[in-house]
Specification:
Elements (H helix, E strand, L loop, with lengths): L25 H4 L9 H38 L4 H29 L8 H19 L4 H22 L2 H5 L5 H24 L5 H22 L27 H8 L6 H21 L2 H7 L10 H30 L3 H14 L1 H5 L3 H27 L8 H29 L3 H17 L9
């Protein structure tokens, strides 16, 4: 996954006070997609499309990552399931991380009568579906791993285009609300993905196919029911408007890599990137091993309840709380025009929630953890996503830069399986993992302090 989850539109013609000097170019913004969604009706349609699209993408990530993939790995290699799962998920996330900025940059530069994002969203969804079918047919770890690498890579092409929709189409004053819809969709995915996957633990192939079809259907609705602005309706990528740039000169590898990562040279963007990476690493260190925790560590799981169903129940509790806090936190941050305080407090709350199962590794404590963690994670995802949209260096390169930010979502998934396996094996089991995850969340909360361009 890439529990993420950003978006951001062309802002008003003049850059807001307090934003980085490298922020949006006013010349392209006034006529950009930010102004395109006229009227509340158009905005409502786009908001619900953002909700559904993100729910579908993350249902694939979370349904497979939480239930289908751990179950299949456990069936194939029960004696080494923790290590095997860590290798497969880590390699898959590494491949996805490489494709995020590439896919975002390609969609920025796509010139198509269907729009610049739509071909990548629908084409990537179809490719993801095909690779998920391959996973369902796998009888060995190698084929399973190859299938997950390819499926996650294709899904990240979808996500790279999807996360650029808010920068393309949503005005600055509506970004908190748009981010809340993105966050709510992501949260619903923790339930929907797990619920779908848990129905197919004995028929894994059907589970993979069902999640793939959900993604294809959601992207088909996105591209047919919302307007993907034509290239001439949006600002050009900043790199294509450089004063001495030759339209025919192909950049070398070093120049291309520098261009991809140029957003990290902006201090505010860099701090947001680091904070997101730490919070996601904390979150996925726990989430990726939740099924195994219930198997091996947590006591008092109700008699007769399958552990896959227990994962779904915990995810549902967290999701309900998270949706409420997301829908309150995002619009409230718009109203108050405050982002940093919301992000910092929610990171602290996530750290505190991890002390609950540390103190009491019981089923009741896991329910309490799900409530508290869901409360703060919902606020975090809504407001941090909005914060991200306000520190992007260039409107025209929104797809590329949002995809770079999504490395902070996918990158921690590369290392989280290895970190979690190392902590569990060498530092005291699951209790040590809770401590490490809490420390990571604390550091993630602290990264809002140096941010200067956003209140």
């Amino acid at each position: 996954m890439t529990a993420g989850m950003e978006a951001r539109p062309g802002g008003p013609a003049s850059a807001p006070s307090g934003t980085a000097s490298s922020g949006t170019a006013s010349s392209g913004t006034a006529s950009s997609g930010a102004a395109a969604p006229a009227g509340r009706q158009g905005q409502r349609g786009l908001m619900w499309a953002l909700f559904g699209g993100n729910a579908a993408v993350f249902a694939v990530y979370l349904g497979i990552g939480q239930i289908l993939l751990p179950t299949q790995v456990g069936n194939i290699d029960p004696g080494h399931k923790v290590t095997s799962l860590g290798v497969i998920t880590g390699v898959g996330a590494a491949f996805a991380t490489l494709l995020q900025p590439i896919g975002g940059a390609l969609s920025d530069r796509t010139r198509s009568r269907f729009g610049r994002r739509a071909p990548w969203m629908l084409g990537g969804a179809l490719a993801t579906f095909a690779f998920l079918l391959l996973m369902g047919a796998a009888n060995g770890l190698l084929l399973l791993g190859v299938g997950w690498v390819l499926a996650q890579g294709a899904a990240n092409l979808v996500q790279a285009a999807l996360t650029a929709i808010v920068p393309d189409r949503v005005p600055r004053e509506r970004r908190g609300t748009a981010s809340a819809m993105v966050g709510a969709g992501t949260t619903v995915a923790t339930v929907a993905g797990g619920l779908i996957a848990s129905r197919f633990v004995d028929r894994l192939g059907w589970g993979y196919a069902t999640l793939g079809l959900v993604l294809v259907a959601a992207m088909a609705m996105m591209v047919t029911c919302t307007h993907d602005p034509r290239p001439d309706e949006l600002p050009a990528p900043a790199s294509s408007t450089a004063p001495n740039a030759s339209a025919d000169a192909a950049p070398g590898f070093r120049e291309a890599a520098r261009s991809f990562l140029s957003a990290l040279a902006v201090p505010d963007f860099r701090w947001v990137f680091l904070g997101r990476a730490l919070i996601i690493l904390s979150y996925f260190s726990i989430l990726g091993y939740l099924l195994y925790m219930l198997d091996d560590h947590i006591t008092g799981v109700p008699s007769g309840m399958r552990h896959a169903d227990a994962v779904v129940l915990l995810s549902t509790i967290s999701a309900v709380v998270s949706i409420v806090s997301t829908m309150i936190g995002g619009p409230l941050s718009d109203r108050l025009d405050r982002r940093r305080a919301f992000v910092g407090v929610s990171g602290l709350g996530m750290a505190a929630s991890l002390l609950i199962p540390l103190a009491s590794p019981t089923w009741g404590a896991m329910i309490a953890y799900s409530v508290v963690n869901g409360l703060f994670f919902g606020v975090y995802m809504a407001v941090d996503t909005s914060l991200v949209t306000l520190v992007l260096p260039s409107e025209g390169d929104a797809g590329r830069d949002m995809a770079v930010l999504n490395i902070a979502n996918a990158g921690p998934q590369i290392v989280s399986p290895f970190v979690a396996a190392l902590v569990i094996g060498l530092l005291g089991g699951y209790s040590a993992l809770y401590v490490v995850a809490a420390v990571l969340a604390l550091f993630g909360a602290a990264t809002v302090l140096p941010i200067k361009g956003v209140r």
